[in-house]
Amino acid sequence: MEPLKVGVLAVQGNFREHAAMLRSLGADVTEVRKPEQLEGLDGLVLPGGESTTFTRLMGLYGLDEAIRSFAKPVFGTCAGMIVLDRGHLGLVDIHVRRNAFGRQLASFETDLDVAGIDGLLRAVFIRAPWIEDAGDGVEILASIDGHPVVARDGRFLVASFHPELTDDTRLHNLFLDTVRAARGVGEPHLRLAAGQEALDEPALHERRAVGG
Ligand code: GLN
User: Distance between CA 117 and CA 199 in Å, rounded?
Assistant: First the structure.
């Protein structure tokens, strides 16, 4: 099978670390700085960094509109989660609170229980946001003290922390499973139902056979 083509928004922030992790998992990675670089990609990662800078640069390069029209799976981490929320790109039905953990807990590491991942996941939080409010269609996969920090909304996966800064690749793998499933279907406006892990193989073959 051809490698999955995954873009990483590379205007600012931790894109190199995400790219390295995705490559280690066999993906063909493109650093995305221009709208046309989204063409032909199977999925996109929005890394951590500074959300105000992302918003400014995405607007400047026309990447905001391009990302809004990009119909494949998207994984947003930290600042990448912020820019996907209702108040920014408006793609994920969540309201995110920036720097939510406050000064004392500005940056910390913890072991997180994430739905869909066996065992605990080491998570690095850096001036991290949390999800303040989520629509009914949003599946919360992990929380800290009742504050959601990992969630899925159809083809969107979001996390408050920096999964690219450990050597644990399981959250990226979870994202790549969605990317793989969506590619098989070949449906440009595919939106996986919340909670749907992957499409079963026979269904994928059937769609391919009819030219999907
Ligand atoms: N505090 C940053 C913001 O508000 C996010 C921090 C991060 O991505 N590590 O954009």
Answer: 18
Instruction: Indicate the SS3 state at residue 76.
Output: strand
* Catalytic residue flag (residue 50): no
Among 18, 88, 139, 162, the active-site one is 162
pLDDT at 206 over 70: no
CB 175 within 8 A of CB 27: no
Instruction: Show the CA angle centred on residue 166, arms to residues 128 and 27, nearest 5°.
Output: 105
Asked whether the whole model's pTM tops 0.85, one would answer: yes
Burial degree of 37 (CB within 10 A; 0-12, 13-18, 19+): middle
With beta carbons less than 8 A apart as the criterion, state whether 163 and 114 touch.
Answer: no
What is the C-alpha to C-alpha distance for residues 45 and 43, in angstroms, rounded to an integer? 7
- Summarised one tens digit per residue, pLDDT across range 39-66 is 999 999 999 999 999 999 999 999 999 9
Q: What structural domains does the chain harbor?
A: 5-209 (3.40.50.880)
Quote the distance between the C-alpha of residue 45 and its chain's center: 5
φ and ψ of 171, to 5 deg: -70, -40
Check whether 212 has a pLDDT greater than 80. no
DSSP assignment of 114-138: -TTSSSEEEEEEES--EEEEE-TTP
Residue 82 Cβ inside 6 Å of ligand 1? The answer reads yes
Residue 77 alpha carbon to ligand 1 centre in Å: 9
For the segment 81-100, the average pLDDT, to the nearest whole number, is 98
Q: How many Cβ atoms sit within 10 Å of the Cβ of residue 209?
A: 8
